[in-house]
Amino acid sequence: MAKDRDLCCCCIKLRLAVAVISLLYLGIAAATTYQKYVANDTGNQTAKIIIFVSGGLQGLIALLGLLTAITKSVFITRTYAFLWWCLTLAVLGFSIASLYFVIKNDRSAIEDECRKGLKPVDGTEVGDDDVIGCYRLVIIISGVVLAVQFVIMCLFGWINQRFLREVKEDAAIASAVKAFDNEGENA
Fold it and tell me: Is the pLDDT of residue 2 over 50?
């Protein structure tokens, strides 16, 4: 019932955009869950459980997005949009906390890696200014990546909200048409 009133990126219908976002996020969630599982070489069972629960929840949100695109149900779409914003805020919070703890606790490890990476071929020592500059660059790049991730998730959330509006409008139109048809039958 929706006209071409709401397009994403000028040419893609919102329904398709939500399906693509959900598929992309499902792939990203699966890949990051696998990467975190492989990186957890400590054998910590609690960490493994947290990794799989986190990945499972992200996968469920992505599957809910696919279901939203398929059904165009107001309830499912509203739930998906709400969970997307919750996920966006959770990712932002955990990313900021992780960056804070890296800055606070892992400075020496980052500086050691900078020393190794900056070490000249002739074997001379790297100056402290170069190491500090490298450390700052690592932190700045991490912050920029965090900001870009947040902006992309907000853009996807905005697309989800626009799709929710479209679904609500379509449901209202369908309800009005049904009420009008019922009045005609009762007259």
Answer: no
